[in-house]
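Could you help me review a protein record that somebody else here produced? This is what I was given.
***
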Amino acid sequence: MSTKQFDVVVIGGGPGGYIAAIRAAQLGKNVACIDEWKNAAGGPAPGGTCTNVGCIPSKALLQSSEHFEHAGHGFADHGISLSNLKMDVAKMVARKDTVVKQNNDGILFLFKKNKVSFFHGRGSFAGGKEGAYEIKVGDETLVAAQVIIATGSSARQLPGAEFDEELILSNDGALRIPSVPKKLGVIGSGVIGLEMGSVWRRLGAEVTILEAMPAFLGAADDSVAKEAAKVFKKQGLDIQLGVKIASVTKGKKDVTIAYADAKGAEQSLTVDRLIVSIGRVPNTAGLHPEAVGLKLDERGAIVVDDDCRTNLPGVWAVGDVVRGPMLAHKAEEEGVAVAERIAGQHGHVNFNTIPWVIYTSPEIAWVGKTEQQLKAEGRAYKAGQFPFLANGRARALGDTTGFVKFLADATTDEILGVHIIGPMASELISEAVVAMEFKASAEDIARICHAHPSLSEATKEAALAVDKRTLNF
């Protein structure tokens, strides 16, 4: 067993961890990053849940399934005729795996480029000395005065429906279904449930989503949620709200869910596979926080202050393992901020301007306050909305679903929230993030020249609508 000294040790190589390690190295620190993810061959696969079984692979499958749906249903409108259309699921999944590996290899390259020492394995606290902490990984002991914990989160299991990743699936198993199921059940209508349900629905599965909450997409703006529910229903997703799961029974080749519907009536649903997506829990398994007295809260999350400091001097935590939204980009921003704080700089994360995105079709994205939040706060506001139906580029694309909605302060006109459902919402939301970060007004966006024809013109028109002066609707 050997002992190695570093300035900073990062435990976890997901978006928060690997970015923190690289930024700390850029700032002149001697940095190590520990990550235990393995690829199919047992080799290192840094990137965490996001790269391996989350953001990246799901987007690869969403893209493949969207191409398939366009070919089967949309190409004819463009004068393109196809026959005998079929999907090779194995090849689709293999492409997804290739995309994942490219990202894994990219992170390993970035470590090498930035002189970050990488250790493959699970990192755990082994004790602390005066001004330093010992972290064990395999046969190695790493010693550092500064430790950044970025161990991420794990899928929450439904009691009585534990994951076997064959019939009852987490996000991991949902990405590896070998063939299109005839019937697919999804418990939970959050981001993962909607995205994975959309993938397999496009490929021909009959998808039923069971949601315990009485409202659909409760975190989104009400008008966006209502539009999304209408569109998803038209697409063929059967979304049932206000259900109460009674039991989940696994057979040899199927799963049966007994539940009460919103009216209290007993129902039963038998599916070929069941995806359980009821949220995620902070991952501290094997970290051994008790070895150094690291404080966790009642959810198992690491307790941190506004600057991501834990109760231990020199120990920080970022991303899904701490408070706040479980978003990869939030973890990245915290990772950069912590690295800069360690270096004596003033790292900053503005939680009010973190965008949210759901990569369904149509895409859904928002930043800032929803209309229902502003009403609850009693804040006076103005709203402006513009439909993609009236946007020339959307018409040319053949995708006019949805709208852009602006919410601005009634007195100052400061942008308080922007909500988009429609084509490329994930890209369009960035303009709103920049605007809000600089405290822009709706008038500022309304006065900026946007390229024609472009989807972004819908953003300008929605800003104009705040003052009731849209030009194309």
Summary: The CA atoms of residues 404 and 420 lie 5 Å apart.
